[in-house]
Amino acid sequence: MLVPAAAGGVGHLAVQIAKAPGAYVIATASPNKLDFARKLGADEAIDYTRGGLIRDIDLVLDPIGGDHAERSLKAIRNGGVLVSLLDLNDTTRALASARDIRVERISVMPDREGLVELGRLIDANKLSVHVAKSVPLEEAGAAHAFLATRPIGKVALTT
Ligand SMILES: NC(=O)c1ccc[n+]([C@@H]2O[C@H](COP(=O)([O-])OP(=O)(O)OC[C@H]3O[C@@H](n4cnc5c(N)ncnc54)[C@H](OP(=O)(O)O)[C@@H]3O)[C@@H](O)[C@H]2O)c1
C-alpha cells in the first residue's frame, strides 16, 4: 500500500491502520517528516520531492486529490485500487477504468464497528494520534492557518 502525505492528519493514521493487519506500507512525505513516517511503522519512507517512480502498488490511499490522484494511478498496478478522500475528476476515472483500477471515493463516517476496532488498535498500542497543536475552539481560524504550515499529525480543537 502507498500512503502519500503520510505524516499528515489522515496519512499518519492510515499508515498505522494499514500496518496493524500486516500490509507492506510505503509512505511518502516531505524530507523533514520521513523519520516520523518510519516511526509509525512504514516499511519504506520516501521523500517525494526527489522525484522518482513508484510502481506496482496494490492500493493507494490518496489524501491530496486534484492532479495528485491522477499521478497516483501511475504507481498502481493494473487491477489495483485507488481510494481517494477527495473528489476525482473524469480524466482520473477514465484512466483508472482503462487499466481496470477500482476507484473508491470515500467519506469517513464514524460507526460503532469501526470505532470499536480503532479502540482495539489503541489498546494494543498499534494506533496513536499525534497532536501537533491544541487550539481552543474559538480560535478555529488560527488552527486553519496553522494547518497551512503543513504540520505533522492532527490539530485538535479544545472546548
Ligand atoms: N473524505 C473524508 O472523509 C476526509 C476525511 C478527512 C480528511 N479529508 C480531506 O483529506 C485531505 C487531507 O487531510 P489531512 O487532515 O491529512 O490534511 P493535513 O494534515 O493538512 O495533511 C496534508 C499533507 O498533505 C501534503 N501535501 C502534499 N501536497 C500538498 C498540497 N498541494 N497542499 C497541501 N498539502 C499537501 C503535506 O505533507 P508534506 O509536507 O509531506 O507534503 C500536508 O501536510 C484534506 O483535504 C481533508 O479535507 C477527507
Would you give an account of this structure?
By secondary structure, the chain is an alpha/beta fold. The protein folds into two domains: 2-128, NAD(P)-binding Rossmann-like Domain (Rossmann fold, 3-Layer(aba) Sandwich); 130-159, no CATH class. 33% of the residues lie in helices and 25% in strands. It has helices at 11-19, 34-39, 67-75, 90-98, 112-123, 140-147; strands at residues 2-3, 26-29, 44-47, 57-62, 76-84, 102-105, 131-136, 154-158. It is globular, with a radius of gyration of 16 Å. The protein binds NADP nicotinamide-adenine-dinucleotide phosphate. NADP nicotinamide-adenine-dinucleotide phosphate binds at residues 5, 7-11, 29-30, 33, 63-64, 85-86, 106-108, 147, 150.
The total of beta strands comes to: 8
Fraction of residues in β-strands: 25-35%
Mean pLDDT: 96
Strand order of the largest sheet: 1-2-3
Residue share in helix: 25-40%
The CATH homologous superfamily of the largest domain? NAD(P)-binding Rossmann-like Domain
The CATH topology annotation of the largest domain reads as: Rossmann fold
User: How is the biggest beta sheet arranged?
Assistant: 3 strands, parallel
Bound molecules: NADP nicotinamide-adenine-dinucleotide phosphate
Radius of gyration: 16 Å
